[in-house]
Design a protein that fits this description.
85 residues; mainly beta; 5-stranded mixed sheet; 1 helix; 5 strands; 8% helix; 39% strand; globular
Length: 85
């Protein structure tokens, strides 16, 4: 998240497929490397977008509203299974 300037923020907005916005905390996750994770509200965001299983792929778009980062739900992603012989 460092590359997009999000590392300096403590909150982010999650926008679901219906345009509903939820303010969510960016929680520091380990002091080394400055990793962040999404806090309370992430599960509700996933439910609102019908992302119900861990590991189910989907796409988010990072947009900015003034100086506030917004992760906007774009779509679910189809994953093809490739079998190697």
């Amino acid at each position: 998240m460092n590359i997009n300037g999000i590392n300096k923020k403590n909150e982010i907005i999650l926008m679901d497929k219906h345009g509903v916005k939820r303010v969510t905390k960016l929680v520091k996750d380990g002091s080394k490397y400055g990793k962040r994770r999404l806090g309370k509200g992430w599960k509700d965001f996933c439910k609102a977008n019908d992302v119900l299983k861990i590991g189910q792929p989907f796409m988010l778009e990072l947009i900015w509203e003034d100086s506030v980062p917004v992760l906007k739900f774009c779509s679910k992603v189809e994953v093809e299974t490739i079998i190697c012989d």
